[in-house]
Amino acid sequence: MFDSLSEKLQSAFKTIRGHGKLSEQNIKEALKEVRMALLEADVNFRVVKDFTERVRKRAIGREVMKSLTPGQQLIKVVNEELTELMGKESSGLSFATTPPTTLLLVGLQGSGKTTTAGKLASMLRKENHKPLMVAADVYRPAAITQLQVLGQQLQIDVYADGAEKDPRKICQKALQQANHEGFDVVLIDTAGRLHIDQELMQELRDLKALTSPQEVLFVADAMTGQDAVTVADQFNKALDVSGVVLTKLDGDARGGAALSIKAVTNRPIKFVGVGEKLDQLERFHPERMASRILG
Ligand code: GDP
């Protein structure tokens, strides 16, 4: 994961290693390489600019601590700023005071929404919740079947109604079932499209108004880099999402989405998908990710 970025950052810090003290000149040289490394990792241009400026300001004029070399000192600042960039602290899910808690999963087709619904439901069950997954994609019968198969695999209940063409009615009935049968978390797998269109957004807005979810989670494919960030921004503007699930991080060699999405949307990454298997979902910890990137 993010191997090339890690390598390039290491090389940037090497340039400063021989110096006795952090000076404006040697910080400038190292940051030039940091900037290149981030741009090559497909991090949003503005994000890179702000990031390197913050690091520069903090690094300049710093007394080098006796125990740290200038290289280590700069790494420390970069580490802290990378953590800040990705959200500082780990953000959990909000739960309803009166169950059920409703989670609306939104995103483009193929981003990993359905898989994430299954992974998240499974994670929540391990934490003693009783989840119900809802198949609200009325446009692709295969999507309903996919969720049902996942439900069978995981032994988690799925609300589906292949004959109902109105996703609002599906959600209403699913919430009724949750109330009657004591499901305390309802995960709604909404329809995705290949591209954003107004009809999709309106449908999602309607579902949000109807279900008053505690979380609207935007599911993004990390491998699509800046496209994921742009789409996240658009979904957020239309729907005011509460957080992001970044999938396929295991296949993401660059890291651009992970490093830009919070800064661009101001919404935290809450979970990351790190493989196709149903237990391969992790809570996102910005600090751990920053340390991992810095090697
Ligand atoms: P949806 O159309 O948004 O519901 O997407 P799916 O859930 O059908 O996922 C699309 C593809 O991405 C499937 O082949 C999943 O197995 C795969 N996928 C989802 N999440 C991950 C992940 O975290 N890592 C990997 N490697 N593959 C994933």
From TrEMBL:
Cellular component, GO, one term: signal recognition particle
EC number(s) stated in the UniProt entry for this protein: 3.6.5.4
Annotated GO MF terms: 7S RNA binding; GTP binding; GTPase activity
One biological process term in Gene Ontology: SRP-dependent cotranslational protein targeting to membrane
Chain sites annotated for binding GTP: 107-114, 189-193, 247-250
Localization, UniProt: Cytoplasm
Catalytic activity: GTP + H2O = GDP + phosphate + H(+)
Tree of life domain: Bacteria
Function statement: Involved in targeting and insertion of nascent membrane proteins into the cytoplasmic membrane. Binds to the hydrophobic signal sequence of the ribosome-nascent chain (RNC) as it emerges from the ribosomes. The SRP-RNC complex is then targeted to the cytoplasmic membrane where it interacts with the SRP receptor FtsY.
Quaternary data: Part of the signal recognition particle protein translocation system, which is composed of SRP and FtsY.
Stated family: Belongs to the GTP-binding SRP family. SRP54 subfamily.
Name recorded for this polypeptide: Signal recognition particle protein
